Amino acid sequence: DPAPPCQVIRPEPCGICGSRIRFGKAAVKCRQCQLLLHPKCREQCPSPCTPRPRHHAWPREGVLADFAPPTRPLVPTLVVQCVTEVETRGLTETGLYRVPGAEQLVQEWKRKLLRAGGALPALGGVTDIHVVCGVLKDFLRGLKEPLTRGCSCPNSPPGVAADIPDDAACSTALRHVVSKLPPANRDTLAFLMLHLLRVSRSPDCKMDVLNLSRVFGPTLVGHASANPTPLAIMEDTPRQCKVVAQLLSLPPDFWRGFVGTEQENPVPT
């Protein structure tokens, strides 16, 4: 039930073709399901449409599954949207994920996204891409359990796997460990690894696997205890980096098997 054409105030993707509808351009929005699309894509609009469910705000913190969609890949919309924005306009930025964004803006946008639940506002209005990177890192850091569930502990399965000296045996052990993670953690980890591999291959970013491992080790791996001492933090850091570096050494096809796409990262429409 499309309404008369309207003007777009904030750039948003077309719900049919996925291309961005730019500021001031004409668009059509369905009165029932709120689907936004180009006028030319109107004939391809599914009929009958289904009203979108009301979105509830996400919790301020929780395990990853609390934020995941009901169908695979179980990657939270917030993660997909941040990654998509970074890959769209951030792969020429030096120090991606290492250079901090303004903390006030990071927290402001994180609160805004969490309040929105699954129906997120577009991130195109965030001028500094480092703020988007900061939102993603802060979201992952704020989970009740780290994405790899505390595998900085030497006796945890990922920690043990990363310590195997033989490369082939280490790779096999890590694949097994990843496959046993909770589904939402596993799918989101796969999605992020594919993204970080793309970042590592960008000559402009100057963020190789080692640099990315240093940045994301504490965020993705966490600590063996909930309240680590300064000494424990210092001892955990090299192991955290090692685990992420080993995960990034696994072939992209392994990670693609979890997100179920030929592309390195699926972009939702």
What report would you give on this structure?
With 269 residues, this protein is mostly helical. It folds into two domains: 11-52, Wheat Germ Agglutinin (Isolectin 2), domain 1 (2-Layer Sandwich); 64-257, Rho GTPase activation protein (Phosphatidylinositol 3-kinase, Chain A). It contains nine helices and five strands, in the order E-E-E-E-E-H-H-H-H-H-H-H-H-H. The chain has helices spanning 77-89, 103-116, 129-141, 157-162, 167-179, 183-200, 209-221, 230-248, 252-259, and strands at residues 6-7, 12-13, 20-21, 26-29, 36-37. The strands form two sheets. Strands 1-4-5 form a three-stranded antiparallel beta sheet, with no helix packed on it. Strands 2-3 form a two-stranded antiparallel sheet. It is globular, with a radius of gyration of 20 Å.
The CATH architecture of the largest domain is Orthogonal Bundle
Series of secondary-structure elements, N-terminal to C-terminal? EEEEEHHHHHHHHH
CATH topology heading of the largest domain: Phosphatidylinositol 3-kinase, Chain A
Q: What does the main sheet amount to?
A: 3 strands, antiparallel
Give the fraction of residues assigned to helices: 40-55%
Strand order of the largest sheet: 1-4-5
Number of helices: 9
Task: Determine the strand fraction and express it as a percent band.
Answer: under 5%
The SS-based structural class is mainly alpha
Domain count, please report it: 2
Shape estimate: globular
Count all strands and give the number: 5
CATH homolog superfamily of the largest domain: Rho GTPase activation protein
Task: Give the CATH level 1 class of the largest domain.
Answer: Mainly Alpha
Overall pLDDT level: 81
The Cα radius of gyration reads 20 Å
| Alpha-carbon distance between the two ends | 19 Å
